């Protein structure tokens, strides 16, 4: 019996309803279906008095989701996609992402197109696009405090009411650099259109094997976004006495103390997106972010008498 998975946003009525309908349809067609909510992939936050809170990366896999699952259908917005891949990537399960949210930058199709999408999915008429994910780890001395998978970006920044911070950053074998800023972002090409873009970083097409460092409000005209090979391991050490905050993919993280260090590397677990047609990244940029729209001329000026 073939096996499929469904991950859905359980605070969106539409996602809940569609998840139930899909389970009934697939079961009637002879599929074994396992369901889980996207909550299981949300990282949560640590507290200053208890910095260790995260489960191991592989412990986020939902019950009954394993390598026998041929595909999963993720129902929600971009947040559900981000949490869903933290649950699916360690098993290598490809996902068809269906937008029931607002932006849906990471989704492949919409609810009103789902019948046709399911037909192609069951017929095997699709391709799989792999996107790099990051492994984020926080150490104190040699003790691992916190770890997570990341599809978009890792951000470490100052707390409210504290001053600008210094970060000592090592990228691979290169000499350490000191960046004075409100924070720093390490992003994947997938995340280059998220927080990094707002911080002035460039857009990177998904097939380019690079990572990006973008300072947040840097205190130097020379501190600008840097693009480097995804094979490099990044180490970030706070060069400030202040307590910092780290956030991963916008929905979880932990406090960073002066004696801590953050290590970022490309994970050997990629996010595997199911594509029903050939990906066209520039079209997505145009439709979602308005990039590259044709210039509209101003109306003819009216001559005053």
Describe this structure as you would to a colleague.
The structure is a single chain. The protein is an alpha+beta fold and 305 residues long. It folds into two domains: 3-131 and 270-289, Rossmann fold; 134-266, Sandwich (Tumour Suppressor Smad4). The protein is built from five helices and 20 strands. The chain has helices spanning 13-28, 78-88, 114-122, 195-198, 281-289; strands spanning 3-8, 32-37, 44-45, 69-76, 95-99, 109-110, 127-131, 134-140, 143-150, 153-158, 165-171, 177-181, 183-187, 210-216, 226-229, 234-238, 244-248, 252-256, 260-266, 271-275. The strands form four sheets. A seven-stranded mixed beta sheet has the order 3-18-17-10-13-14-15, with no helix packed on it. A six-stranded antiparallel beta sheet has the order 9-8-19-16-11-12, with no helix packed on it. It has a five-stranded parallel beta sheet with strand order 2-1-4-5-6, with helices on both faces. The longest helix is centred in the N-terminal third of the chain and has 16 residues, at 13-28.
Write a brief structural summary.
By secondary structure, the chain is α+β, with helices and mostly antiparallel strands. The protein has five helices and 20 strands. The model has no long low-confidence stretch (mean pLDDT 90).
Gyration radius, rounded: 21 Å
- Let me know the CATH homologous superfamily of the largest domain: Probable inorganic polyphosphate/atp-NAD kinase, domain 1
Number of spatially distinct domains: 2
What percent of residues are in strands?
35-45%
Approximately how much helix is present in the residues?
10-25%
The strand line-up of the biggest sheet is: 3-18-17-10-13-14-15
